[in-house]
Amino acid sequence: MKVSKLKKFDAAEYLRTAEARAEYLNIVLADGDPAEVRDALNLVARAQGMSEIAKAAGVTREGLYKTLGENGNPEFATILRIIGAMGIRLTAKPAKSKPKKNAVA
User: Fold this and answer.
1) Which of 19, 72, 96, 98, by CA, is between 20 and 30 Å from 63?
2) What is the reported pTM?
């Protein structure tokens, strides 16, 4: 079989549940790379439906594609609206830190 005849892999097809989408975002957020976070938000938005997410976030579908696209650089407020539209909530927890030398236990 030729490679050109294979179905293109789309990870969005595997993010069917809210739990799977949230866990995927947690993994990407843990790395902290802004481009990867943007790409992950794009993937999750496609998994849920770009039109639905755009409407709930108060942006156009085309604007959402542009914002989460390869050259997108969304403002934090926009990211928060998109995440909220996805039904996901950001939380914070302490990062693992290296033990301090001479720390008193």
Assistant:
1) 19
2) 0.80
